[in-house]
Design goal:
- The structure is a single chain.
- Helix content is about 5%, strand content about 45%.
- By secondary structure, the chain is mainly beta.
- It has three domains: about 65-150, Phage tail protein beta-alpha-beta fold, CATH 3.55.50; about 160-265 and about 405-415, Immunoglobulin-like, CATH 2.60.40; about 270-400.
- A five-stranded antiparallel sheet has the order 8-9-10-13-12, with no helix packed on it. A five-stranded antiparallel sheet has the order 15-16-17-22-21, with no helix packed on it.
- The protein starts with 15 loop residues before the first strand and ends with a strand.
């Protein structure tokens, strides 16, 4: 079955392009022209490189173990909670919206506990929800008030938490009867902050979906019925929207839903560091990504109002065939030029100036050979004032990746 890449919130980040097979009836090699002379030989397509799998245990050893937090609070305000988390976390924390003066004060005592386990416990006690704001890096806390504990389907480096279930009409584009509905389940997936993956490589396969009366709710296409969304500066939080097939006699409880998620995790990366970036123009660097040698050209870093803009050109050598890769289960991917990140702009104190977003153009229409990328660093009233002009630009590029398989399972969920 031909896999589908999940929908990405910003298409510029979805650089892994599914490889399509040639159309049937394509012109064979060395077919004579009308005049009798043979045509030039058809180029032999490159063989895909197999992406090796990796277990979580092996990945954890490679990353130096899981991310741990020690948090000791006594009647702490939300601002003190954010400060305590940000001091230890690779992800900055911030408060988003609402009047936080009415928030519950928090007392907590955690010593070297898993990152998201600590955050989830603080969420429950403080009545807030960890999410992200498109213009802010890291984790944004939003006040939501008291709420029940969210069911957890997998604890460890990938925590799947159940968010909601709803019946919705079928997508009109499917060609199915409009009266037919689908059961949508929304999950929040929390990932250890040390883990990075190639954007657009989530692939989910369901193995079982049963209500408490034993009715199967499995969709017609278990491998092709979900979408994902996340944030380019915080890969540690993703949302999965999964579709099941309602049964006419479906009950109000989901007895069990299980499956596995596959993704390509980064096992090696290289960071290009540029000092005083406002003074640097047309500086180039060649980086090896998998079996590709790509050229990164920093054209300029410029100030635009209160924002900063970084202009890059990324090129794959024209003389080489675009690199593509095959997973163990046969899915094949191109690696696009713009598969890189994060990009960070720091002040003299080593603090991130602001969040960044991509704006990408493909030259010649080929995402795998040439692209221009504009990274916009936007600041707003919530961000602290930077200490002077940008002092350092960091561009991180994945150079090696493996396929990670993550099982998940939920029991006894309420249905609409």
């Amino acid at each position: 079955m031909r896999p589908r890449l999940p929908t990405c919130p910003l298409k510029a980040l979805c650089g892994l392009v599914l490889l399509l097979t040639p159309l049937a009836g394509a012109q064979p090699a060395n077919t004579p022209h009308a005049g009798g002379a043979p045509s030039p030989p058809t180029p032999v397509p490159p063989q895909p490189q197999t992406i090796e799998p990796i277990s979580w245990e092996a990945l954890s050893r490679l990353l130096g173990g899981p991310s741990l937090l020690s948090v000791h609070l006594n009647e702490a305000t939300p601002q003190q909670v954010v400060q305590a988390l940000s001091e230890q976390s690779p992800l900055p924390f911030s408060l988003y919206g609402a009047d936080w003066s009415r928030a519950t004060k928090i007392t907590a005592d955690f010593e070297q506990q898993p990152f998201w386990l600590v955050v989830r416990q603080l969420e429950q006690q403080g009545g807030f929800l960890a999410g992200f704001d498109i213009w802010r890096p890291g984790v944004a806390l939003r006040l939501v008030g008291p709420r029940p504990w969210i069911p957890l389907g997998q604890q460890g480096p990938f925590d799947f938490t159940f968010r909601s279930a709803e019946l919705a009409p079928q997508d009109p584009g499917t060609g199915r009867d409009k009266a037919e509905s689908q059961l949508r389940l929304v999950f929040r997936m929390l990932i250890d902050p040390k883990v990075r993956f190639l954007d657009g490589t989530f692939y989910l396969r369901l193995t079982e979906a049963l209500d408490d009366q034993g009715h199967s709710l499995m969709p017609d296409t278990p491998e092709d019925n979900f979408s994902s969304s996340g944030h380019q500066t915080n890969q540690s939080m993703q949302f999965l929207d999964l579709s099941l097939k309602p049964h006419p006699a479906m009950s109000k409880r989901l007895k069990r839903v299980a499956g596995e998620l596959r993704t390509l995790v980064v096992t090696r990366q290289e960071t290009w560091e540029i000092g005083n970036p406002l003074q640097v123009t047309n500086q180039a660097k060649v980086m090896e990504r998998g079996k590709s040698r790509d050229r990164f050209l920093l054209e300029q870093t410029r100030q635009q109002g209160d924002d900063y803009v970084v202009d890059l050109t990324l090129a794959h050598p024209q003389a080489e065939a675009p690199p593509f890769y095959r997973t163990a289960d046969g899915r094949e991917f191109f690696l696009g030029c713009e598969d890189f990140g994060p990009v960070r702009l720091l002040d003299v104190m080593g603090r991130d100036l602001a969040n960044w977003v991509f704006d990408t153009d493909y030259l010649g229409g080929q995402a795998v050979t040439l692209a221009t990328v504009k990274c916009v660093f936007h600041r707003d009233a919530h961000d602290p004032a930077p200490a002077g002009a940008p002092a350092k630009l960091l561009i991180t590029v994945p150079t090696e990746w493996r396929e990670l398989v993550v099982p998940f399972e939920f029991h006894d969920l309420a249905l609409p």
